[in-house]
Amino acid sequence: MIKTVIIEDEKPASRKLERMLSEFPDIELVAKIESVEEGVAWFSENEHPQLIFSDIVLGDGLSFDIFEKIPTKAFIIYTTAFDQYTLKAFKLNSIDYLLKPILEEDLGVAIEKFKSFIPSENSVNSQEIKQLIKKDKTTLSRILVKIGYNLKIVQTHEVSCFYSENKIVYLQTQERAFPSDFTLDELEDILDDKKFFRVNRQFIINSDYIKNIHTSPNYKVELEFQPKEEITVSRDRVKDFKDWLVS
């Protein structure tokens, strides 16, 4: 039997996932956890399972906080309504990432993916995980941002650029700029590279917002956003930029 834990703070979602898992005769649910605090306590006091299904945004923090405090060798399948945490998820033993509402077909595929790792010891093979990420790369389609005490979902197609300023990365929309939790290096890995391109150390641009391209005396790109009206493409990125425009 595959010992399994669910981490989910929404009771309806937890019950639904439990019902879906009951259809798999080799899955044994040993615990349901609703918060970071409860998770830290449980994983501190109990034998770790082989498989964890974990929501990311919990009432008292992110489930990542549990595994950063209590490292685990269990495989994790993240279940969430937001896809902005993909990169960090794969750094923390994740073998799959299911967006809510979870479909039975996707759940079955994720469990089969887990089973493909069982012949090895009950620990994560980092090389296999890296190959899995390359094969099943998920691109970022929406981002959760904070506005005071409120949260807002921003679709990436609404973002004209991402830029770094005073060690904070902002995303710029027609409405305004919003601070994000990403670095530009992380965004390069998870944005759709057909739409987004890193033109220099400070900016990643969206091709849909390019107004004009000036090639002399300096290679510059004009974008439909404020506060910057012109962005210079780094000299060492010019060839790649040209190739990207026509790819």
Explain what the structure shows:
The chain has 247 residues and is an alpha/beta fold. The protein has 2 domains: 2-117, Response regulator (Rossmann fold); 130-245, Beta Barrel (OB fold (Dihydrolipoamide Acetyltransferase, E2P)), CATH 2.40.50.1020. Helix content is 29%, strand content 31%. It has 8 helices and 17 strands. The protein has helices at residues 11-21, 36-45, 64-69, 86-91, 104-115, 126-135, 184-190, 238-246; strands at residues 2-7, 27-33, 51-54, 57-58, 61-62, 75-80, 94-99, 142-147, 150-155, 161-165, 168-172, 177-179, 196-198, 203-206, 210-214, 220-223, 230-232. The chain has a 5-stranded parallel β-sheet with strand order 2-1-3-6-7. It has a 5-stranded antiparallel β-sheet with strand order 12-11-10-14-13, covered by helices on one side. The radius of gyration is 21 Å and the shape is elongated. The model is unreliable at 120-127 (pLDDT under 50). The modification 4-aspartylphosphate is found at residue 55. Residues 3-115 form the Response regulatory domain.
Note the main attributes of this structure:
2 domains; five-stranded parallel β-sheet; CheY-like_superfamily; alpha/beta; phosphorelay response regulator activity; phosphoprotein; 29% helix; Rossmann fold; 247 residues; OB fold (Dihydrolipoamide Acetyltransferase, E2P)
Named CATH topology of the largest domain: Rossmann fold
Q: What can be said about the biggest beta sheet? A: 5 strands, parallel
Give the CA-based shape: elongated
**N to C succession of SSEs:** EHEHEEEHEHEHHEEEEEHEEEEEH
Number of domains: 2
Distance between the termini: 48 Å
Protein name: Two component transcriptional regulator, LytTR family
GO molecular function: DNA binding; phosphorelay response regulator activity
Pfam families: LytTR, Response_reg
Keywords: Phosphoprotein
